[in-house]
Design a protein that fits this description.
Elements: H1 7-15, H2 26-39, E1 52-59, E2 62-69, E3 76-82, H3 96-106, E4 109-113, H4 125-136, E5 143-153, H5 155-169, E6 176-180, H6 207-218, H7 228-231, E7 245-252, H8 256-268, E8 273-282, H9 285-288, H10 293-310
Length: about 300
């Protein structure tokens, strides 16, 4: 069971309480997202730097944003990033909070993918975009395709984890899968285990919202269909041989236990895994309150894990 919410996050939630929105209502969720972006100054970079170049691009035919350090001529490691937003909202700018320090301090490039959104584009559309982007990295000048990390937050972590499984199966090396507050298992909203985090209190994401998220994304797809273990990574019967993982889980998050369970399965399969279990944190804390103490610490650990994976 979760402990108390971190005081800094609790104070933020008092000032900005989580809205009562039905995730089944696409227009309501997208309207909320648009209002939030407007309140935050619009879809514009929050941490621009003169030593980091931000550009729009297409990778594998998929729109993306790229952050890269200026003045470095050698081939750069690259993070292929996927934003959160329940598969129905969000934008590539969501990767900025790790992309800027990676480029400015560590000489690592980040490519954040603008994958197609549900329900207009149900699964496997977003995953197909992720695969195309991964294949397209080789076309970007100055990128070292032998040093690739996949990173995702929430729904984006499902894409990153699924892409890591896909890369294993096509024998494409991935240095690390970095998963933050990951959504990995469409079955957990139906759990009857009262001790599971899906049955607990989560002020920024409810069980009903997670259920609606997967319904939008999966539509009428059968879980037994070919390739569904890439779409819903927890369905994979065999996770051995997949890329090492760094998994950030928030204590007060309905998704907490599926992240922990996936880490356990990876370890049992012989995969190296680091888990950052952040006490007092809520779902999406590292994006909602990126300047908070817990978020800064978690983001620093994500950056450290990525840098360690791609440097000798």
């Amino acid at each position: 069971m979760a402990g108390p919410i971190d005081p800094e996050i609790a104070a933020w939630l008092r000032d900005f309480p989580a809205p009562d929105v039905d995730y089944r209502d696409i227009d309501a969720v997208r309207g909320l997202f648009a209002d939030y972006m407007a309140d935050e100054g619009g879809p514009a970079p929050r941490w621009p730097r003169d030593d980091v170049e931000l550009s729009t691009m297409s990778v594998g035919g998929v729109s993306a944003l790229m952050w890269r350090p200026r003045g470095i001529d050698r081939p750069l490691p690259v993070v292929l990033a996927f934003h959160g937003g329940a598969f129905i909202v969000g934008a590539p700018l969501g990767a900025e909070r790790i992309a800027v320090p990676l480029a400015a301090t560590h000489g690592v490039c980040t490519v954040s993918v603008g994958y197609r959104l549900a329900p207009e584009h149900p699964a496997p559309a977003a995953l197909d975009d992720a695969k195309r982007a991964l294949a397209g990295l080789a076309s970007i000048p100055g990128i070292d395709v032998d040093r690739v990390v996949v990173h995702g937050s929430s729904a984006g972590a499902a894409l990153a984890a699924g892409l890591a499984l896909h890369a294993r199966d096509i024998r494409l090396p991935i240095a690390l899968q970095s998963l933050s507050c990951p959504a990995l298992d469409c079955r957990t909203p139906a759990t009857t285990d009262e001790g599971h985090s899906m049955r607990g209190l989560s002020p920024t994401l409810s069980r009903e919202s997670v259920e609606a998220m997967w319904q939008h994304y999966l539509a009428d797809a059968s879980l037994s269909s070919e390739g569904m273990s890439y779409v819903v990574p927890a369905l994979a019967a065999d996770v051995s041989g997949v890329a090492p993982a760094h998994i950030t889980v928030a204590e007060c998050d309905v998704l907490r236990d599926e992240g922990i369970d996936y880490a356990r399965r990876l370890r049992q399969a012989g995969v190296t895994v680091g888990v950052d279990h952040v006490a007092g944190a809520v779902h999406g804390f590292d994006g909602l309150l990126p300047d908070g103490a817990l978020a800064r610490a978690a983001l620093a650990k994500q950056v450290e894990a990525i840098v360690s994976a791609v440097t000798d």
